[in-house]
Design brief:
- The structure is a single chain.
- Helix 1 crosses helix 2.
- By secondary structure, the chain is α+β, with helices and mostly antiparallel strands.
- The chain has one domain.
- Helices cover 29% and strands 31% of the residues.
Length: 98
């Protein structure tokens, strides 16, 4: 597992009527052998699903969705959120590969 922080930015936050577009960037704590870029998601449900599935699978699905909803609420009020000390497998990071 690769540990780091996940920054989420709501790109079109000025147009509240539009379908939200999000840019995610993973910043590993240690140097990696792959170059990472941003990952894009469109829609609140897509982001909610992504945030719920990226968490530790030993945590119940209900609890993971609860955490994801809390992060989404923070994002709605601030337009950007940083999640520290998240862990991804190399397979999960493929969506960030340049």
């Amino acid at each position: 597992m690769i540990e780091g922080s996940l920054d989420i930015y709501w790109e079109n936050n000025e147009d509240v009527a539009a379908t939200p577009r999000y840019r995610l960037r993973f910043l590993p704590l240690r140097k990696m052998d792959m170059t990472l870029g941003p990952k894009s998601l469109v829609g609140k449900e897509a982001l909610l699903d992504y945030l719920a599935t990226m968490q530790d699978s030993t945590v119940t699905t209900e609890r993971r969705r609860l955490y994801a909803r809390e992060w989404l609420l923070q994002l709605s009020s601030r337009t950007t959120v940083s999640l520290t000390l998240v862990q991804f497998s190399k397979e999960q990071l493929e969506g960030f590969r340049l």
